[in-house]
Amino acid sequence: MRFNAHFSDGSSAQLLPVSVQQIDQTIHFIIADNAHYFSLEQCELSPRIGSTPQYIDLPNGARLVSEDFDALAAIFTKQSPFIDKLSHFLESKWLYLLASLAVTCITAWWLVNSAIPAMADSIAKQLPSQILAQVSDQSLDLLAEHYLSDSELSLTKRGTIASYFEHYISQLDTPYDYQLHFYKGNDLQANAFALPNGHIVITDELVELLVDDERIMSVLLHEVGHVEQRHGLRNVLQQLGIFILFGMFLNDLGDVSGVFSGIPMAVLQLDYSRQFEYQADRFAIEQIHQADSVIQASSDDFIKSFELMSEYYQDSGDVPEFLSTHPLTENRINQIELMVEQSQAN
Amino acid sequence: METQQQGELTPQHSSTSYAFQFKGKTGEFFRIWIVNLALTIVTLGIYSAWAKVRQSQYMCGNTFFDNHEFQYLATPMQILKGRLIAFALIITYSVLSSVYPMAAAGFMVALVLLMPLLLLSSLKFNYHNLSYRHVRFRFTGKVGQAYWYFLLLPILAVLPFGLLLPYAIKQQKCFIANNLYWGDQEFKSEPPLGAFYGLFLGCIGVVVVLSFVIGAVFGLGALSSESGGQVMALMLVLGPIIYLAMFAIGFVANGYILRFMLNNAQLADSKINTTHSPWTYGFILLSNTLAIIFSLGLAYPWAKIRMNRYLAKNITMSKELDLSSVAANNGQANSSVGQEVADGFDMEVGLGL
Ligand SMILES: [Zn+2]
Questions:
Q1: What CATH class does A2-80 carry?
Q2: CB contact set of A130 (below 8 Å; sequence gap of 6+)
Q3: Nearest C-alpha in A relative to B75
Q4: Model ipTM?
């Protein structure tokens, strides 16, 4: 068996073409009239990787480079390490490629759908409250600066809502320091949202739309649900987790730091997943049912709020991001009715 | 396919310059990549060390310069050792930080302070394990320099309204280029500082014009319609475009910096030259990023090959230096554990900062 190679002695970049011959358990070649012999055991063959050249490291620091893969495979039968042999075998068979693709996709799906949400949940539970407060304050400042303006509601209306809200919160066993903020929504229109530390914002437009204190309370309870279940934080952590996962799979995606500047924005986007919305609805309904409250909010008030908001947004003719990321109003009303039926059956 | 490759070979044999050629194929690299991913998952990450070596060697072994390939010499065991140490440190950190929250902050500070050291080790490790014609590359930057160029200078540079930023970027790039050796031959690159400031002004100009256009669009939008809703809708459309534009500016700027560095670089007496267009470079980077995102990562092998092919096509080196005469300098052939740990941390450093 014979193959062509380039020889270099390791002391300089000089490469010499040589013809290498195998005789039993040795290889030999001639350079400048000098014959070189090496036993196969002394030589180390580099693994086969795609169609890149292979290397034979010789004991004296010299090296042979060759692209004669068939001859190398025939000569160095015992040399290739098991792991690289396995990799090369898998890479060359379609069936195993498909299996690899399947393993990767299923794992990615599992990570995105189960593992990352679970981890985000446990991290969100452990995050110190100072960080929570800081992120929330930043987000609220940004919002107040760019969208919101001072509330124009009457002080009595604000006072009534706030006292109902405080009364409700006083009955709740919670680690969060709830505060209700009134703002004029402007471009954000009729809206309510919760920040991770328990600060809840409701816009004048929403108060004017819903009119009744009971309806307003039902919407606020939904927001309390977001806070209690740490939805905002979990959402951000999940996005972060997915970004990190993405980076790990791709190894060198480049500038990963960009994601950190996006955290405040992610909080603002209110991009709660549909699941989170259903969970917050469920929380609100449960609270409505068990609260021994001065106000008599009912699930009907909750449903009416949905209907009013959905009508409002249809009339104004554009799709605000608030609704586009929220589940269809109809589906949510259905869920609420289902829950009411269930609780009555019990 | 075969004939096309023959066609690409012809400009190689220019009499005045050495040329690059990248022979990697998307399909082949995809196979290696996807098998690597699956095996890494199945072995709970241990295989990632082998994956790293196979992918690096695939890229190096397919990069030909003057018809000879590069070689990646790190062994999976070296990489595995580094990654295990990095992993152990991360586990220690998360256990510590859940018991003593203050320890977490301390660890982050330590990581920031160690960052220049890790970057330096990573540069040393990567160049030490890159070889061409059986002669290794070498990075000779010192610890003190690393702290100056990677930590102090960037901090100082942003202080006076970022006015020193172009200078800092130039100095950082030159630190890397001017401490690089192939065998006993030295790389040098001294691009004119004016080019960096010109680029800086250009970027600012583009950003200003862009914000002006956006402002005008919003102003018109607000005038033509009473409802704020339309402005909102416009922002939903424009938002991602602005975001992409910011990325694109960064990518094109990188293309310019690469051109400044290469066109002023030389190895011994041989001058390096590149004909790549920063705009094409930026376009390839941007479209690669988009393709990777929208294919949920599957386009990664294609993107990687595409960029390497483009750069290889454009970079050449004049023939003053007789390549085969270059002597190896294997003085510090033994690599320390620190270098391997740095490599294991590679990504974590990138994430942390
Ligand atoms: Zn909600």
A1: mainly beta
A2: none
A3: A46
A4: 0.76
